[in-house]
Design a protein that fits this description.
The complex is a heterodimer of chains A (about 210) and B (about 230).
Chain A: H1 2-7, E1 14-17, E2 36-39, E3 43-47, E4 68-75, H2 78-86, E5 92-95, E6 99-101, E7 106-107, H3 123-129, E8 132-136, E9 148-149, E10 164-166, E11 170-175, E12 178-184, H4 190-195, E13 201-203
Parallel strand pairs in A: 1-2, 1-5, 5-8, 6-9, 8-10, 12-13
Antiparallel strand pairs in A: 2-3, 3-4, 6-7, 10-11, 11-12
Chain B: H1 9-13, E1 21-24, H2 34-43, E2 48-51, H3 62-67, E3 71-76, H4 85-92, E4 97-100, H5 103-115, E5 120-122, E6 136-139, E7 142-147, E8 152-162, E9 168-169, H6 178-184, E10 185-195, E11 215-218
Parallel strand pairs in B: 1-2, 1-8, 2-3, 3-4, 8-10, 10-11
Antiparallel strand pairs in B: 5-7, 6-7, 8-9
Classes of the chains: A alpha/beta (about 210), B alpha/beta (about 230).
């Protein structure tokens, strides 16, 4: 999944990879493309994790894990960082999700369970701010329920903001004509995919 | 002579009042002014409202303040972390009030206070639980939520170097909330690793102009309570 997402990130793009599953995308970015990773705590041009003996506690990513800075990379405060996000300066963000609706509504910050401790971070800013909002998630929950739904039942992160969904089964675009299947894993039929998806799907033309 | 350098963290926080609203810098532990927070715990101010991105890690910094039951309310974006058990316990026991704010709105509300704005419209959070009951407006075909500034009585921030006029530079991602909080509080107190002579900071590279800083105290990195402050 991470490799498939990475293959769509093209030369020169500025990208924010959300905490969790999307972080893996960094491992698959083609080395021949110059791609700038943004981290909302104030890095542009973020590099991979350092060797353990070179960890700098002042150089962390948004997940509070140690990272490095590439030559040409820079630091900035949160005001600038969220201007980059909210102001439409990021080309792509990749986020995890609990649910995505047929209209591209995103739910990824809170299950709404009464005993859950809510935490939102920068998810809502990425959802409304990045030019392309990609979701990377398992197609179904552990109990087999579709994470792609007609309407989200979990609290929303953003309204009609998702542009593309990458799952372990398919790549699906959110379009004005509805959810459009761009790709499916080998051996999966459209009928089978539709059966596993709780929202109407259509096949991309051509 | 203008000299904002204070002798100790204890002296720097001595006059913080019960019931004060405090901004505390840091993203996780990077930039967290741990010695100022420790001094505040010893000082004893209670019923505090804290504005910070997180709600503390393990039992250091902000988490220690929470554990000492000095905080009535916290305004933050990401309280839940792998080691936020102090906050988690207080929240589940309803012993602390939480105002959860999307991170970019937290940032913009702090900046609005520092910049003198009365309010602003933001697209972040529109149509979500965190915008419920708030005024909205459609501008240029897009939906926005009205958000108000967040002011503070005191900001506690961490920086790398500073001079006696209060000019500050930061180190790597420890910069995070320091510059915006400094502008939003009536009294900004910075803990720095090193106080340097006037003129020693490159004026082209000063991140926080001294006008936003009222007190600074030197806490060498080697003597910090947590190494990653």
């Amino acid at each position: 999944m991470a490799a498939r997402v990475a293959s769509d990130i093209t030369e020169g793009m500025v990208v924010n990879l959300g905490i969790g599953l999307p972080t893996l995308v960094a491992n698959f970015l083609p080395p021949d493309r110059e791609i700038l990773l943004h981290s909302e705590n104030g890095i542009l041009g973020m590099g991979p994790a350092p060797p353990t003996d070179q960890v700098d506690p002042d150089l962390m990513n948004a997940g509070k894990l140690p990272v490095t800075l590439l030559p040409g990379g820079c630091f900035f405060h949160h005001g600038d960082s969220f201007a980059m996000m909210r102001g439409g300066h990021l080309d792509v963000c990749v986020l995890g999700a609990f649910q995505v609706s047929a209209k591209g509504d995103l739910a990824n910050w809170h299950t709404g369970a009464p005993d859950a401790i809510p935490a939102v971070g920068g998810a809502m800013d990425l959802a409304i701010g990045a030019r392309q909002v990609c979701v990377m998630m398992e197609h179904t929950t552990k109990t087999g329920e579709s994470k792609i739904v007609e309407r989200c039942t979990y609290p929303l992160t953003g309204v009609a903001c998702v542009t593309r969904i990458y799952t372990d089964l398919a790549v699906i675009d959110v379009t004005p004509h509805g959810l459009t299947v761009v790709e499916m894993v080998d051996g999966l039929s459209f009928e089978e995919l539709a059966r596993l998806t709780a929202a109407p799907l259509r096949l991309a033309e051509g | 002579m203008i000299n904002k350098v204070v002798a100790s963290p204890e002296a720097a926080v001595a006059d913080i009042q019960h019931g004060a609203t405090l901004m505390v810098g840091g993203f996780g532990t990077a930039g967290m002014p741990a010695e100022l927070v420790a001094a505040l715990i010893d000082q004893g101010a209670r019923d505090l409202t804290i504005i910070s991105n997180n709600a503390g890690n393990a039992e250091t910094g902000l988490a220690a303040l929470l554990k000492a039951r000095r905080v009535r309310k916290i305004i933050c974006s990401f309280p839940r972390q792998s080691d936020s058990y102090v906050f988690d316990g207080l929240y589940r026991a309803k012993d602390i009030e939480l105002e959860l704010v999307p991170q970019g709105n937290l940032v913009a509300r702090i900046q609005a206070a520092g910049s003198g704005f009365g309010a602003f419209y933001t697209p972040t959070g529109y149509g979500t639980l965190l915008a419920e009951g708030k005024e909205t407006r459609e501008i240029g075909g897009r939906h926005y939520v009205l958000e108000y500034p967040l002011h503070a009585d005191v900001a506690l921030i961490g920086a790398h170097r500073g001079d006696r006029w209060g000019n500050l530079v930061y180190r790597k991602t420890a910069r995070n909330f320091g510059p915006i909080m400094a502008a939003a509080a009536r009294c900004t107190i910075a803990q720095v690793s090193e106080v340097v002579e006037l003129g020693a900071l490159d004026p082209e590279a000063v991140v926080t102009p001294g006008i936003f800083v009222h007190r600074l105290v030197q806490v060498p990195a080697s003597s910090r309570r947590v190494t990653n402050g």
